[in-house]
Amino acid sequence: MSATPSALDALVSEIKACRICLEAPTGKPLPHEPRPVVTASATARIMIVGQAPGNRVHLSGQPFTDPSGDRLRAWMGVDKATFYDSSRVAIIPMGFCFPGNDAKGGDLPPRRECVATWHDRLMPLMPDADLILVIGRYAIDYHFARLGLSHFNRPTLTETVMVWREIFEASVTPRILVLPHPSWRNTGWLKQNPWFDADLVPRLQAEVAARL
Prior knowledge:
alpha/beta
């Protein structure tokens, strides 16, 4: 049974008003004004769990409004209208705000405050989300731990994604599909791992289509 929409809506409103990482941070405060980005509904059957918004998403306020989003939608086999239909697709990054850049210009890790404050409260309110697309190490660590799948965690992300079939079969409700980040920086990785497009992407598209 789905959670009461009002309960989930109230929590999402709290998240979108969150200023913890600026006003009561763990470590250094967020280097800019918070702008939490999350989409959720009590009816969504597909949940996308990425790392944290990048600068473009911080500016737009909408998840995956960048080339990574174009690639992810292509992997899933969906158009933008479907992707942004929160009644069918929830997008719950591990960090809700753009964390800022490191000294080399890359994105910092997701803020720890998000998991500590919000995620354990959010997950039970979306029981209909029976397919979770887990993107990247931080998402893998959190969801594997909460679902009893940590024994599938491998030393590298590539090794973990390579056992995606075993992970999918071991996870029942929800089903888990692990993905590399859809960043265009991973184009070389995709060329080196053709099994991803040949095997995992068709299964991903079939599972997504079955829930839409």
